[in-house]
Amino acid sequence: MLALFDSVYYFIVDMPFSGQNFQVCSLSTIMREFTAMHSVACLPFKDLILSAAEKHKDVDDQSRAWNAPQPLMDHLKANLNDSQLEAVNAGLSRRSFVLIQGPPGTGKTQTILGLLSAVLHSAPARMKTKGGFDVQKHGPELDIDGKYAHWVKASPWLFGANPRDLIMPVDGDDGFYPTGNELKPEVVSSSRKYRAHVLVCAPSNSALDEIVLRVLNTGIRDENNNTYNPKIVRIGVKAHHSVKAVSMDYLIQQKLSGVDRTLDGGRRGAGEYDRIRASILDEAAIVFSTLSFSGSSIFSRMSRAFDVVIIDEAAQAVEPATLIPLVHGSRQIFLVGDPVQLPATVISSTAQKLGYGTSLFKRFQGAGFPVQMLKIQYRMHPEISIFPSKEFYEGALQDGEGLRKKRPWHSYTCFGPFCFFDVDGVEAQPPGSGSWVNQDEVEFITLLYHQLAMRYPELKSSSEVAVISPYRQQMKLLKDNFRLTFGDQSKEVIDVNTVDGFQGREREVVIFTCVRCNNEQKIGFVSDFRRMNVAITRARSAVLVVGSASTLQKDEHWNNLVESAKERKSYFKVPKPFGAFFAEDNLKTMFVEKNPPAEPKAEALDAMNEEAHRQGLMDVDAADDQADAGDDDDAAMDVDDGGGDD
User: ω into residue 343 within 30 of 0, thus cis?
Assistant: First the structure.
């Protein structure tokens, strides 16, 4: 049975013998996806969506390009790296679709903020005319009578009252535009007529609220490079408390609180709520919504279409869901995501096999559509990033400055930056759960964390250390074990989560438990390289992987990871009892001594002294002496650098 409650469709199972009804699931998302697929034929870029190729890709994009104000572009050039700036420039080219791939730690959200600044404050480089596009030009020179007529219109106060004194200011004309929280007015140039209306979407509420929070905290830049808070609204359900000030429900209550209710007896009809919702959507510069909610009927009451749609985590959404926000009249779509991180969640194996889980981003990329990749990561120690860069990004991922900083726990090779602990445990499947646990890995991880926290007290915080697992039951087992070992405050000192629940987050140290261990070498969805990529790229200074090498190495990617650990002498076989591994005598063998003055340095110093003595005895021209000394200093420096690297 299909039922409609509060504009949401639910599938209801009627149990005739029990006299009860059970709600199985909501069908609203499915129906919105179905409607969006039927609407593709009406979209201006339907051919591009179907073919995944630009029809006129050889045509000069400058005919549609937008120009960002110079002060704003100077700011973007100074604060974005080359790959981020290329992504922003691709957006200003006004291509219908722009794909931006953001590997872990590459500043994807920062790039989105740059895009918002550029999109909201740019103007067309060329104006559209009847015959096509042309550069704006001045009109013909007027004669004296024509000029006089214009002066009369431009200076009405010379012949009477100023008409502008007789009307109320209009948003934008008076130089101010109200903000969502009414705290910081948005300065708007009254001469600018090309203000974009932007819709920002994400597959989940948590991913959406992360962007909203960044916009609220940091703001965006205007055409004069001033930071301000634009008027925004976050629509939908389950908004995080941190973004409540710009949620639709809160803004409606704020508007209603300022309305005099005595005229209508205090009654508030549904029509009034709809009118207020529509006005809030029309007034907002940026509207934030989940992909599914962007298909809500609330958008049909707007009088203003969206010029630009930005979809974050686009690779985590199925293609029909990505089509939902495209029906609002937009002319440019930004797909931002990473196809080699977590995919969309599809429960049905049949639907998965038939391609329902493929994202629009991945299909476009697979068809050869150009992708702007962010190439510099600012999160991981280079010893962590080297493997995912080579394995998943063809070696294109580069390290930002200052990431090679050595942490205190790097004094032991078993505490990072990258380690694989080979633990042959016993996997088990709790009855009726469909999930997996590994008690041996839980025991080892508890000892591992105890050693870290005991030796380095700064790691006694859930904001510093996390343990993640592909399986929810393993997560529950870890939490129970930590609570028994460290007390009720364990949740405050260590963060335990699933891989899927931890995407987009990071910690100083991350311990990853692989769980699976069996003779048949079956590893289930642990074999998904995208989930593997997310798991090993959450750490800033140390990622510690715990698993059974003999089970995992049947998979190509896991085999490469284990072999990489062995090559870098970061592979540790851990037999039982696990406590013996952390005995002081064994830890001493893994202690990394601070590099003493290397012998090559001493040899270089002797060579320099010898050369200086020889040069002092030589009777040559002073200029030649100076030149020779400079050359020898360079040579000595080369030797010294070599000694330092060794």
Answer: no
